[in-house]
Amino acid sequence: MLFFYYLIFIFFFTVILRPLSTLIHELGHGIPALLFTDKKVTLYLGSYGDPKESFKVTIGRIELFFNKKTFDWKIGLCVLEQEILSINKQIFIVLMGPLASLSLSLILTYLVFFSNINDNAKIILFFFNVSTYYDFFLNIIPNSKPIELHNGTSVYNDGKQILELIQFKNLPEEYNIGSKHYNNKEYDLAVLFFEKVLDKGYKKEVIYQILISAYLQIEDYDNASRVDDLYSSKFKKTYNSIDYINSGLIKSFSGNYDEAINDYNKAIEIEPNNSNALNNRGYTFNLMEDYENAIKDFEKAISLEENFAYALNNRGYAKIKLGLKEDGLADLEKSMTLDGMNSYCYLNLGVYHYDNKEYLKALKNFNKAKELNDKTYQLDYYLKKVKQKLGL
């Protein structure tokens, strides 16, 4: 009989108390993240970023993924879609996770030791209290051992992250101004302020990373390459997958395809399930006219992210060039329903009509791509070709 009660307790603790304790901790991160940003916030409860082995709950801008494997329960993970925030806001978001656990722990401590509730309830609350204190101390004490995430990347616990963020507190005001412009998608203004931060001698990894990203957003590949060279000379040994993706992207749009492939290979080696790295490598294979390998990358990217508009669009182009025109057109049409303002989709749709010798339709789509983004790679080349066909 005692063994039976023991099994019930283990089940209750594992299936109810631990998930509830984790939920409180991650909501401590998630709620201020919602307040400070206007984009999606994702909470992984019981896993380090595994959506496939979890069931999903969506409430407004917050997504919650609950690990189905209750006996393989990890702490959790909070992911912000909006990546650039002021240092103070980042510290607050990270700190609120442990503080949420501590606040609940103090309430439970009072109920267990100083309230008049019945003994059975106190036993349950006692073990719940143990769980919340565990979450607090495990996260607030800085730990230099990285936590490996589901996608192959790694992060540090909350305490270690807070210490690292405090080190950035001495960054000049230009960093915060640049961050605001970046978040508002005013990338041309953001680069001006991040350049000033570098000029003042604050040559930290995060400054190079944000500045490269901002230059890529405005498609200024010359300046992106210049900053990437400076960054590489100082921090190449600590490159992560995003660094290699950005470096590869610069080289892809500069015509250095083989070097770009090498960078994407390194990004995928670090993070095998990075759909952006796979899509960008496939895009570069497209530019190299290696459509079979391109499609392999797009297939994997889409398997990881079913509604990945860019990968669908790029796969459509590869299929069209291989003669699978109707299959390719279906990919382009699906991509356009997901992202109708993507100039590359109109470019590829124009290619479809061009290959079918429907030159007026091709011109119409190329002009639409030009209207959306006159820097669309290879667009001028195709515009020149179709105008020659039409005698314009």
UniProtKB/TrEMBL annotation:
<dbReference type="InterPro" id="IPR050498">
    <property type="entry name" value="Ycf3"/>
</dbReference>
<keyword id="KW-0802">TPR repeat</keyword>
<dbReference type="Pfam" id="PF13414">
    <property type="entry name" value="TPR_11"/>
</dbReference>
<protein>
    <submittedName>
        <fullName>TPR repeat protein</fullName>
    </submittedName>
</protein>
<feature type="transmembrane region" description="Helical">
    <location>
        <begin position="91"/>
        <end position="117"/>
    </location>
</feature>
<feature type="repeat" description="TPR">
    <location>
        <begin position="343"/>
        <end position="376"/>
    </location>
</feature>
<feature type="repeat" description="TPR">
    <location>
        <begin position="241"/>
        <end position="274"/>
    </location>
</feature>
<feature type="repeat" description="TPR">
    <location>
        <begin position="275"/>
        <end position="308"/>
    </location>
</feature>
<keyword id="KW-0677">Repeat</keyword>
<keyword id="KW-0812">Transmembrane</keyword>
<feature type="transmembrane region" description="Helical">
    <location>
        <begin position="6"/>
        <end position="24"/>
    </location>
</feature>
<keyword id="KW-0472">Membrane</keyword>
<keyword id="KW-1133">Transmembrane helix</keyword>
<dbReference type="InterPro" id="IPR011990">
    <property type="entry name" value="TPR-like_helical_dom_sf"/>
</dbReference>
<feature type="transmembrane region" description="Helical">
    <location>
        <begin position="123"/>
        <end position="141"/>
    </location>
</feature>
<dbReference type="InterPro" id="IPR019734">
    <property type="entry name" value="TPR_rpt"/>
</dbReference>
